[in-house]
Amino acid sequence: MKRKPIERHQTLREKILETIRDAILKGSLRAGEKVAEPELAERFGISRTPIREAFRQLESEGYLTVIPRKGAVVTSLSERDVEEFYAIKSILEGYAAQMAAVKLSDKDLDRLEAINERLGQLAREGDVKTFFRVHNEFHELFIRAAGNDKLLELINQLMMKFNRLRMASLSLPGRMEISVQEHRKVIEAFKEHDGEKADKLVSKSAAYGGQVLIQSMAREEGRRVEPSVLRRMIDV
To answer: What is the CATH number of domain 3-74?
Structure first.
């Protein structure tokens, strides 16, 4: 009897998280706009405590900024945020791929292929949310195979903080399909146990993800995109 309130609380919390994430990604909630606790409390029929817990989670993922005595507002994103995150992601995941290339077992490689086949199906269905989750499984598998616990911890912390950027990039037209194609090339490099090739492919994939997001942000603001560090990384 005691477990039911906990399960309900968790379900409501997830609904709140999903509602706010979707609103931000779809542009219903824009940068700098306040997210009202009273409206959410009334909508879900709950107290403000689980809402504030959800706000803290969304702040850790880069969606919201919680200002004391003022509440939560949608965090503004800049091209610099995108460029710096994807540059670091490129370096760390590229290194992990290089280390993993000589350690992945045949079972691991089969699992990577199965995950990527699932991603292909999700891309065709246009299911960005599930694609994002399964995409994380693909990357976590080879990062774990690198055998460096501190590297895994560092990457996980970085990914959590910038979940919003990653989801936004995968939501762009055609990006999921391109990601599946990139994964196929990475798997081939892993099968060849070619660490240098795997590093280069994973690094370029991360840089490309950042670049297309920067281009999308610039188009929305009617600006011309200047050459960036990420663009140069792709061209190398």
So the answer is: 1.10.10.10
Query: Which superfamily is assigned to 79-235 in CATH?
Result: GntR ligand-binding domain-like (1.20.120.530)
> Domain ranges in the chain?
3-74, 79-235
Q: What is the pLDDT along the chain (236 residues), one digit of tens a residue?
A: 444 444 444 567 788 888 888 888 877 888 889 998 888 888 888 888 888 889 999 998 888 999 888 889 998 888 888 899 999 999 999 999 999 999 999 999 999 999 999 999 999 999 998 999 999 999 999 999 999 999 999 999 898 888 888 888 888 899 999 999 999 999 999 999 999 999 999 999 999 888 888 888 777 666 665 555 455 545 54
The rounded distance, in Å, linking the Cα atoms of 8 and 45 is 12
Residue that has been written with the tokens 């693909």 in this structure: 138
The pTM (predicted TM-score) of the whole model is 0.78
H-type helices in 162-220, by residue range?
A: 163-170, 175-191, 195-220
Q: Say which residue the tokens 């011309």 belong to.
A: 224
The span from the CA of 198 to the CA of 216, in Å, is 27
First to last CA, the chain: 60
Residue type, 108: D
